[in-house]
């Protein structure tokens, strides 16, 4: 395995971990009022495109990374819908 | 330009836009209590690795995408530090 591949896996692991602190924080605090629903909807849609891109490029780093982020993104969409409405306001959905 | 490249640019554009709704929401509401600081610190560190990965792989999609996300991540770190402490609690930094 070359250096660039190891770097890719490390970056991929970090990318995968990016949404994890938000998931943990939201689960613990049961509050997602300040969290943007659109951010995680865009992320989820985007992960699907990146998985297809990874498949076409035969790039396992891209594929593995984005499947895992997709799961975390959908988890945050669920948590936002569950805990994001404690203080309802029109901008809550932004 | 092949289909896979166009797909990459579309995915890259969406990736770039991912953090934008959160930046807009936080600027408008001046509140980031529920937003995870660690998420954006990890994202910023990670974007640097992805830029290096993109340079080594000579992949312009990866490079361009991650430079822009780096800027948005650092913007959110700034906004979290500015607006995230309205209700101070130990878990604010998670």
From TrEMBL, chains A, B:
The keyword Membrane applies. Keywords: Membrane, Transmembrane, Transmembrane helix. It is a multi-pass membrane protein. It is found in: Membrane. The keyword Membrane applies. It comes from the Bacteria. The chain crosses the membrane at residues 6-24, 36-55, 61-79. InterPro entries: PQ-loop_rpt (IPR006603), SemiSWEET (IPR047662). This is SemiSWEET transporter.
